[in-house]
Design brief:
Number of domains: 1
Helix content: 10-25%
Number of helices: 4
Bound molecules: inosinic acid, magnesium ion
Order of helices and strands: EHEHEEEHEEEH
CATH architecture: 3-Layer(aba) Sandwich
Strand content: 25-35%
Shape: globular
């Protein structure tokens, strides 16, 4: 698996240190308010697991399944909600967690959906934010790292369902992406 990686963009140790900081900031942001964590599957799974273990408070975790990439390295432009039922967020404050902010469509669509379902406050957190123009006007309240506009994998992020278990954020070799398209 590591042989398929062209370069490591953010290594494990750097991610871990940054999570300490973000976890603390999120807790400050909610000012001792109770909140429910909504994880956008599957990409945010690894990040959220590590982030929440840095938050020593009682909290609930809910998951939401959406798809926008459909196996390619470019967003399809459509956000599909894959669950038949959304998490119960009526009257609650929500921390929405995703792996990466790219076009912004996912975070915008999910945030809007949660508000429509009665969430009183939605704060968002992403591990990565790509520096680019967004298709949807949205920014995250908390960002782990700002990166350039390139396709990355690891620490939850996938290419065609693979590489989520890389412990760092990396860029795949061109031949790996080329071979499987
Ligand atoms: P957006 O809706 O375009 O902001 O895209 C968000 C979703 O696209 C993320 O939740 C990821 O699942 C996926 N995505 C965007 N960029 C990348 C990438 O560089 N690598 C892997 N997945 C990505
Ligand atoms: Mg995702």
């Amino acid at each position: 698996m590591h042989d398929d990686v062209e370069k490591v963009l953010i290594d494990e140790g750097v991610i871990e240190k940054r999570l300490d900081v973000i976890a603390e900031r999120i807790l400050e942001d909610f000012c001792d308010h109770e909140f429910v964590v909504v994880v956008i599957l599957k990409g945010a799974l690894v990040f959220t697991a590590d982030l929440l273990r840095r938050m020593p408070i009682p909290l609930e975790i809910e998951c939401i399944n959406v798809a926008s990439y459909h196996g390619a390295t470019e967003s399809s432009g459509r956000v599909d909600f894959l669950d038949s039922k959304l998490p119960e967020v009526k009257g609650r404050s929500v921390l929405l967690v995703d792996d990466i902010l790219d076009t912004g469509r996912t975070l915008a669509a999910v945030g809007q959906k949660l508000c429509e379902h009665g969430a009183t406050m939605v704060k968002s957190c992403v591990l990565l934010s790509k520096e680019k123009e967004r298709a949807a006007e949205v920014e995250a309240n908390h960002v782990g790292f700002h990166i350039g506009d390139e396709f990355v994998v690891g620490y939850g992020l996938d290419f065609r369902g693979l590489y989520r278990n890389l412990p760092y954020i990396g860029v795949l070799k061109k031949k790996v992406i080329g071979n499987s398209v």
